[in-house]
Amino acid sequence: MDWQLQDAKNQFSKVVQKARHEGPQEITVRGERTAVVLSARDYDALLAGGRHLSMRCSAARSGTMNS
Predict the structure, then answer these.
(1) How many CB atoms are located within 10 Å of the residue 36 CB?
(2) CA 23 to each of CA 19, 29, 30: distance values in angstroms, whole numbers, following the listed order
(3) Prediction pTM value
(4) Where are the alpha helices (DSSP H) in the chain?
């Protein structure tokens, strides 16, 4: 899901919760993607070069991710 910076700031706990359960949450500033909030699990997978993260990213973008 994409979040405008102000919305992400105002609902940060929800952004973190969605990152934990649905996958990476993209933050935009004036419509431009500028940051991504990841769960600790996804961050660890990224550091390990795991394919699990890319699969979760694709599912989250396509809307097929289960909560």
Answers:
(1) 13
(2) 5, 20, 22
(3) 0.72
(4) 5-10, 12-22, 40-48, 51-62
Domain boundaries, the chain: 2-62
* Residue range 21-60, pLDDT digits in tens: 999 999 999 999 999 999 999 999 888 886 665 566 666 6
Across-strand partners of 3? 27
Count, residues in the chain: 67
Angle between helices 51-62 and 40-48 (to 10 degrees): 130
Q: What is the assigned CATH class of domain 2-62?
A: alpha beta
CA proximity to 46, closest of 33, 38, 65: 38
